[in-house]
User: Fold these one by one.
Assistant:
Number 1:
Amino acid sequence: MIRLWRSFLGVLSFSVFGLGAGVISFVIFPYIYFVWPENEQKKAYSEVVHRAWNFFIRLLIKIKIIDIEIPDKEKLKNLSGKIIVANHPTFIDIVILIGLIPNSTCLAKKATLKNPFFRNIVKSIYIINDIDLEKLKEDSAKYLSEGFNIVIFPSGTRTKQDEDFKIHKGPAAISLNSGAEIVSVKITTDIPFLQKGQLFCDMGAKTVGFKLEVKEPINPKDYADLPEIKARNAISKKIKERII
């Protein structure tokens, strides 16, 4: 009975999330586009998504679907122009990270543009990653220079806890090109939750405990003496050590 009730609350909360995405995409973002000065629009888009997703996370905590422990919470405050890399064990990892970290964007697949509720959000503030690497580095460097943090899951997809997975070289390439530091975040849960292949409505039988461990930054300047390919490999190896 408890599991059924939690599933009901979970589905209800995700319905609220979807409704909120629709309001943001079809009402708030168009308002910002037509009314706000162009040079302030991206910051406004980012702030709206951050606040909305922060509300959603607080809602999940309030109804005891999840709880979040962040031992080094101070390290997430006032981040600017950083590349945030994390492992990706659950469906809501991106919502948690952007809900916690202001001035953030992320890499998004081109397929998300087909979703009518998220198309306008993705076009307005996210970086499409299904593009040429040089264009990805150029677009990312522009966002980072403007003070945005870019959230990236270097595994490219959800993975199970403690699973060994391949690290894509994108974060390292972006860091070396832009000079931006990489902040690694290891995400763990005390029980499996919204993993790949797990039913979307399965909220488990108890509050799911998330733990976010924020690691020390990786500075690309430390690898300046290496050839680019070796530097990418070394940074990617360091990322993998910190998030697995």
Number 2:
Amino acid sequence: MILCENLSKTFNSGSGIKNINLQFLPGFIYGIIGYNGAGKTTLLNCIEGLYTATSGFVLHNDIKTTNEKDFVSIRRKIAFLPSDEYLYPMLSCSENIELATILKTGKNKLLNETEALIKYFEVDKYLNKRFRECSTGMKKKVQIVISLIGGIDTIIWDEPNDGLDIVSNIKIKNLLKYYKSKNVTVLFSSHVIEFLDNFIDKFVLLNEGEVIDNNDIKNISSLEELFIKNMLPDDQVTDLFFNK
């Protein structure tokens, strides 16, 4: 279980998240939604332990992310996917995956699960290509494969849909459903409302660093209607140039 209690993270610009109180349970898929700059990435980075909270804290199974000695073993089981590219551009996709395997598991041979994921996302077609020469979608799939190396009990993905085609998005859905069936806690942010609808179990709606709504997806008619109701003033919805 992951618990955020009075969690705040502020930056010099004044942006960040404020007094977040959330609970994430194993076996559920959570969608984090909101405007650009709403605090989605900051929240996920705090939960992963990449950011230190300004106030409040995050617990993973009763262990704080700031407790470095105890949290390190938990962090190894988190499949973290940042929104930015972070792999070595001059190395091939294969070399990046092999290096990540060594760093995450201490083994210099790819795990069977990793090889299966490489084939599942068809990364094997461009394994020998330098990472910097890959398309946005190719890069994203390599980073997804790397995030899932080793035994995991939590998935934290920031914008996994970025640059992916329809088939790859379908594969992501099926993959996350599989991990859900294994009692893994799944958290991810996305701007693609159509991807989230009828797929996630629960959602967290953020605006200006605060939680506007946190609910079961079954309790609303649609995420799009929820977003429009809570995030868009009436004049932005109705007073459009093509309605005049």
